[in-house]
TrEMBL record:
This is Putative ABC transporter permease/ATP-binding protein. PANTHER family: ATP-BINDING CASSETTE SUB-FAMILY B MEMBER 10, MITOCHONDRIAL, ATP-DEPENDENT PERMEASE MDL1, MITOCHONDRIAL. Pfam families: ABC_membrane, ABC_tran. Residues 391-625 form the ABC transporter domain. Its main location: membrane. It is a multi-pass membrane protein.
Length: 634
């Protein structure tokens, strides 16, 4: 954890304690979204990860061959050098030195070419596998139902697609191939050393676990520290983005100081993690370097003794000149083999840490891919060509959590072509009724019937083909006005889009935009006014021409003139199709075939506007309030 100095400015800031509490909660929630940093190596998971390379078996197998070749080349290079020094050079044989150098150069070139292709192909393999994985994840996310999205945070989904997918890429592109190269290198180098001098090699083996242990101790701590640095940075950027986009609210509610305290806390957290990682690196790298050099010093003493005194203490007696030359050659071989041998050991240990991170990422990514989409269709569900648009709620009850119902015994019938206005206080269940008609959920009790077919028996695609949804948030995707309208009917031509806008009598309003229908709407439609966004969504629904229309009317007000045009467009849009409107406009409610008043998930009144007014019940009270609020605002 980071150690922070108390900051007087932050402590004095109003709400600093609250800010700290919020940060703590926020950090905890985000840490939960990110999940554990590492997971143990599990064979089934490794096999599944490896199976992602199956479609690219040719590429993968070429890489395996290159990996093996490189595992031999790496120890062969220092071996040639040591052989030339201990052989031709010690014997003062100049042509032999030249031949040896030429052989070294040739192998060097071959090694460079192998390295080039190994790097290139592993990057390609990592890229194609991650591309497939992201495509599969996205496709799978599209299939998951509302329940999944109700319980999963957006941040968690984004982490699966970004940091976890990246961890998998590292696992596939680096861990396997880099580890194989280095393990191969170590095996061959060990064979060479053991061949030259078995007892001296015993000394090397005895020291290796020390280096491995140092690496494991620091490596895992460093891995965690760097991951914390990264995630604390993403918290800083996320908070910064939120603060900048919400700057008006911040200033409006005079929250600048509180936000500054929160931001300060996140930044000092990040600095703390950075310092911790730097402190660890500062000990680890010099320690490892010192150990390797110490090792060489030990080797020089032992090997030197052997050369000068004939064999290691306790391993044989007097040596002949030929044996002494062989001992000298062995020492040179060891001195050349050892530094890259320890380097390879370090690389393998580092890859082990990366593999644990990849395992954690793989567990989460596969868990998402294995999440079964909720089955909403019965096996023999009907898929009628068209829908007339009769909607019946037959004693429907529903709870997002089945133990806590939010709709109780709802019954009503909408004839084809009718407009049903849903009104009620916030949380009364209006949106939930709409979600049941849209088949985002199935009722927990009773039946929702469309054209006499209960929703589980009606194929979801058939319903969606005849269902148009216009939400209050007026969701627009990055692209042009034209693209956004066409989303309602992807095969529609430009002329069809223009015709839809004409039908709603709003073409002139959209053509007034800087580039007319080709104007880019900006992120989430930010480049358009609220009224323009609503019109684009109406055109989108008009183009799709569904039999059933769901409309969550926007509450935000637009200027009087635009309001009149929107109202006119809305009347055209509603005409001739069964519509359910979460109504906020008086004129929509007045023209509705029926107004359904909900309270705490129950229908308390139902009828035409005038009838309900005459009854003088809850609706009449709401209406009076509405009128008073309208007068006060004008
Ligand atoms: N995804 C959800 N998970 C759990 N409970 C939910 C969910 N959505 C809504 N609820 C709860 O269901 C009840 C009805 O909510 P609903 O959104 O249908 O009301 P509403 O009348 O549309 O409200 P508003 O006018 O504020 O949009 C509320 O108590 C709400 O807290």
């Amino acid at each position: 954890m980071s150690r922070r100095r108390p900051d007087p400015a932050a402590a004095e800031a109003p709400g600093a304690t609250l800010a700290t509490a919020i940060t703590r909660l926020d950090l905890k929630a985000r840490a939960e979204e990110e999940g554990p940093a590492r997971a143990p190596l599990r064979w089934p998971l490794v096999r599944r990860l490896w199976s992602l390379t199956t479609p690219y078996a040719g590429l993968r197998n070429t890489l395996l061959v290159l990996t093996c070749v490189r595992g031999i080349q790496l120890p062969a290079l220092p071996w040639i050098l040591s052989a030339v020094i201990a052989g031709p050079l010690a014997a003062r044989n100049w042509p032999g030195v030249l031949w040896g150098s030429a052989g070294f150069l040739a192998l060097l070139l071959f090694t460079a070419v192998t390295f080039h292709y190994r790097m290139k192909l592993s990057l390609v393999l990592g890229e194609v596998v991650v591309q497939d994985l992201r495509r599969d994840l996205f496709g799978h996310l599209q299939k998951l139902g509302m329940r999944y999205y109700d319980r999963t945070k957006v941040g968690a989904i984004i982490s699966r697609m970004t940091s976890d997918a990246e961890a998998l890429r590292q696992g596939i592109q680096d861990v396997v191939f880099v580890s194989l190269v280095n393990v191969g290198h170590m095996v061959i180098a060990s064979l060479i050393m053991a061949w030259y001098d078995l007892p001296l090699f015993g000394f090397v083996l005895a020291m290796s676990p020390l280096i491995w242990a140092i690496h494991r101790f620091f490596g895992s701590r460093l891995g965690t520290a760097w991951r914390e640095v990264q995630s604390s940075m993403s918290r800083v950027t996320a908070t910064l983005a939120e603060s900048v986009s919400g700057i008006r609210v911040t200033q409006g509610f005079v929250r600048q100081e509180r936000n500054a305290a929160l931001f300060h806390e996140l930044v000092s957290d990040h600095a703390g993690y950075n310092l911790r990682a730097s402190r660890l690196s500062g000990v680890y790298i010099p320690l490892l370097d010192f150990n390797s050099q110490l090792f060489l010093a030990g080797l020089l003493v032992l090997g030197g003794w052997q050369v000068l005194h004939g064999g290691l203490p306790g391993f044989g007696g007097e040596q002949s000149p030929a044996e002494q030359a062989a001992t000298f050659a062995a020492l040179v071989v060891f001195i050349f083999q050892l530094p890259p041998f320890f380097l390879a050991l370090r690389v393998v240990a580092r890859q082990h840490n990366t593999a644990l991170t990849a395992m954690a990422g793989a567990e989460r990514v596969f868990a998402l891919l294995d999440t079964e989409p909720e089955v909403l269709d019965e096996p023999d569900a009907a898929a009628p060509e068209t829908i007339r648009g009769e909607v019946v709620f037959d004693d429907v009850s529903f709870g997002y959590d089945p133990k806590r119902p939010v709709l109780h015994g709802i019954s009503f019938k909408a004839e084809p072509g009718q407009t049903i206005a849903l009104v009620g206080h916030t949380g009364s269940g209006k949106s939930t009724v709409i979600k049941l008609i849209s088949k985002f959920y199935l009722p927990t009790g009773g039946r929702v019937l469309i054209d006499g077919i209960a929703t589980p028996g009606l194929r979801t695609e058939a319903l969606m083909a005849e269902l148009g949804i216009v939400l209050q948030s007026n969701f627009l995707f990055t692209g042009t006005v034209m693209d956004n309208i066409r989303m309602g009917q992807p095969s529609a031509s430009d002329a069809d889009v223009v015709a839809a806008a004409k039908k709603l009598d709003c073409l002139d309003l959209l053509e007034q935009l800087p580039e007319g229908l080709h104007t880019a709407v900006g992120e989430r439609g930010g480049a358009l006014s609220l009224g323009q966004r609503q019109l684009v969504c109406f055109c989108r629904a008009m183009l799709a021409d569904p039999r059933l229309l769901i409309l969550d009317e926007a509450t935000s007000s637009v200027d009087g003139l635009t309001e009149a045009r929107i109202q006119k467009a809305l009347n055209v849009l509603l005409r001739g199709r069964t519509s359910f409107v979460v109504a906020h406009r008086l004129s929509t409610i007045r023209h509705a075939s029926r107004v359904i008043v909900l309270d705490h998930g129950k229908i308390i009144e139902s009828g035409r506007h005038n009838e309900l007014l005459r009854e003088g019940g809850v609706y009449a009270g709401m209406y009076r309030q509405f009128i008073r609020a309208g007068e006060a605002a004008s």
